[in-house]
Amino acid sequence: xxxxxxxxxxxxxxxxxxxxxxxxxxxxxxxxxxxxxxxxxxxxxxxxxxxxxxxxxxxxxxxxxxxxxxxxxxxxxxxxxxxxxxxxxxxxxxxxxxxxxxxxxxxxxxxxxxxxxxxxxxxxxxxxxxxxxxxxxxxxxxxxxxxxxxxxxxxxxxxxxxxxxxxxxxxxxxxxxxxxxxxxxxxxxxxxxxxxxxxxxxxxxxxxxxxxxxxxxxxxxxxxxxxxxxxxxxxxxxxxxxxxxxxxxxxxxxxxxxxxxxxxxxxxxxxxxxxxxxxxxxxxxxxxxxxxxxxxxxxxxxxxxxxxxxxxxxxxxxxxxxxxxxxxxxxxxxxxxxxxxxxxxxxxxxxxxxxxxxxxxxxxxxxxxxxxxxxxxxxxxxxxxxxxxxxxxxxxxxxxxxxxxxxxxxxxxxxxxxxxxxxxxxxxxxxxxxxxxxxxxxxxxxxxxxxxxxxxxxxxxxxxxxxxxxxxxxxxx
Length: 477
What we know:
The protein is an alpha/beta fold. The protein has helices at 2-30, 69-79, 102-117, 134-137, 142-158, 185-198, 210-217, 236-239, 274-284, 303-313, 324-331, 346-353, and strands spanning 33-37, 53-55, 57-61, 85-91, 121-127, 163-167, 204-207, 240-247, 290-294, 317-319, 358-366, 376-383, 394-401, 407-412, 424-430, 439-448, 464-465, 468-476. Strands 2-10-9-8-7-6-5-4-3 form a 9-stranded parallel sheet. Strands 1, 13, 14, 16, 17 and 18 form a 6-stranded antiparallel sheet that branches. Helix 5 runs parallel beside helix 6 and helix 11 (324-331) crosses helix 12.
């Protein structure tokens, strides 16, 4: 009896081993493949990607009657084909003493709708003053400003997918948060918090100086960990960035910083010296946007100094028209940085590196180590731009049959917001090749902006089309 049981158990083990061996054979046979990546070479070409680059300012007065508004917006859009970003300044001066009228809100909706239809990412600044005389043009009370915020918020939220940043708190000369009778520290904090509570958490907010950021958020230093990329509506700290319209204009960026150390004061609102504030922005603006306009031709915006500071501050957007003298200086300066930009103009180098700039370095496809597992595809991506992409992108690999045109789209859960300026990261994805018939295929990388559906252009030589970037060829045998 025992002997029979022994032989029966042995037979079962033998059969199981044979089945396993057969499965391994069939599995390895079915997944016989070869992958040949294309050469990955960095390119100096200028890209057009969302949430980065140069912008133009387009300004609009809201009023009860403006029959020219539609044609004005259409003309502005026609002039703005070159860039992905636009800065819209919305002047509320006509309503400084009253709520926004239904006509004014209708005009605001018309403006946002037109620019959204044009496929632009909007940076929006509400203000009451274009003449440097905020105290003459602004409301008499913070309460009136808060009411305007409440009225505008519904329109902002309807277009949140295309409104990238709200700059300022509606107050100050040209909306730049200075020279206003209403901008004491407490009021500034109230207004920023109110705007944050009203608006979609996906929309970034920005203030004019690092000192204002620290005072409003109540953080002398950055929190550790920093509350980045959270969707909570009360997360003011994690969505508050900076805009600097005195960038590279002097040692203090024309009053943005101080000459003395901020640590000489106990106040959260103390401005630091240039070295301290650049270091602060280097940490903060890994998570939130930073941009503005360069001013006043001086040594701080000579090309080598400008590149160094723009990179340290993680700048992602700049005014395309101001300061013309600085921009012309960059256009007439030759880049001496080693690599594909050697000999390019400084302007082209800076334009190409505003925001994120992704370069593919290599890719591979590895056979699975365990039966039943899928082959693992990996690629290395480097961000050579001044900043990261702070909006989540959709990543996927498209496998396209070169004979039949059959396609398989493989989504990846890569969070490219974490690919900071200067970082190189390897990403992996299991590819279900056992679902495909034998034949030859091309693999394409697709990085897409969910809001616009646009594919992100890579800074590589090679083929990029509606399928994405051509990574290489795959043969299934």
